Amino acid sequence: MGDQVLELFPHPGQRRDLKNLYLDQLASLPEDGPPFIYSNYIASLDGRIALPAADRHSHQVPPAIANDRDWRLFQELAAQADLLITSGRYFRQAADAETQSELPVGQAREFDDLRAWRRDQGLRPQPDIAVFSASLDIPLQTLEHYRDRRLFLITGKQADSDKLAELTGDGRMEHIACGDGAAVDASGLKRHLQALAYRRVYAIAGPSVLHTLVSGNALDRLYHTTAHCLLGGKEFDTFVWGEALQPAVALPLLAMYLDTEAPPGCGQTMAVYGR
User: Fold this and answer.
1) Would you give the DSSP letter of residue 140?
2) Secondary structure class of 195 (helix, strand, coil)
C-alpha cells in the first residue's frame, strides 16, 4: 500500500504515505507515566457511525463509509496496543454472527507487517482484552476464541454477584471493580490498568463506552475519520452517547490528513484530536 495522503495540519501541503501513518504517531510515546488511552471512529458528514443492519436487530458500519484504507489505519492503532477495551455488546453480536471481524490485530496477509512489528517491539502476538459491562450479558461461548489472551471484566462495585461469579468463576475472566455503582466509572481506570503494567490501551467499543471514558477524564486521544458523504436515517449511532458533558470536553486538533481515494467518489479526512 504505497498510496499517499495530503497533510492538512500541522504541516499543510506535505504528502504522507498512508501505510504506517498512525503507526509512526504512537510508537514514539513515552514509556513512563499512566496508560495512554485512545479510540478511533469513522463517521459520515452527518455524524453516523452505524445504521440498522438489514435484519434491524443490530447497527453496523454502513457500506457507504467502510473502506480498506480506513481499516488499515484501524489495524495500525490496534498493533500498538497491549490492551483493547470493548463492550459486552461485541460478544452478544458475535454470538449472533453480527460482528464485522474478530478483535484485532487482523490475521489477513495484508497485516503481516503489523504482526511482525509487534514481535519486533517485544509485544505479545495479540493485545489483551478488557470488557466494559453493566448488564454482564456476555455469552460464555464467545470468550473461547480469546483463551490465548488475558481477559478482564470491568464493572462497577454493584455489579450482579451471581452473573459475575458465572463469568469469572473458572478463571476465564479477571474482574476489575471501577466505580461505586453497577456501571463503570472510568475516573479510576488508569490507576487499575497502570498497576497491571498496561501502557497503550485502544478503546474499540461503541458510543456508550466512549462517553464513559470521556466523562471519567480517561481518554487521551481520538482518531476520527470523516467520510465526505451524507447518510441520513432516523435510527443511527453517533460516536459518543450519554448525558451531556458539562463542561464540554476540549480535544484540540493535533493532525489532519486528506485522502481522496476512498470512499469512492467522496474521499475522507482523518483527524487526530487530543492532549
Assistant:
1) G
2) helix
Element (H, E) at 141: none
Write down the pTM of the prediction.
0.95
At 104, list the grid cell: 484485532
Bond into 34 cis (ω within 30): no
Report in angstroms the alpha-carbon separations of 25 from 53, 78, 151, 154.
34, 13, 27, 28
All 3 cell numbers of residue 271? 483527524
Q: Are 25 and 273 in contact (CB under 8 A)?
A: no
Place of cell 504505497: 2
Going along the chain from its start, the domains and CATH numbers come out as: 34-252 (3.40.430.10)
On the 0-12 / 13-18 / 19+ scale of CB atoms within 10 A, 105 is buried
Residue type, 158: Q
C-alpha to C-alpha distances, 30 to 35, 124, 200, 213, nearest whole angstrom: 10, 19, 10, 21
pLDDT confidence band for 254 (50 / 70 / 90): very high
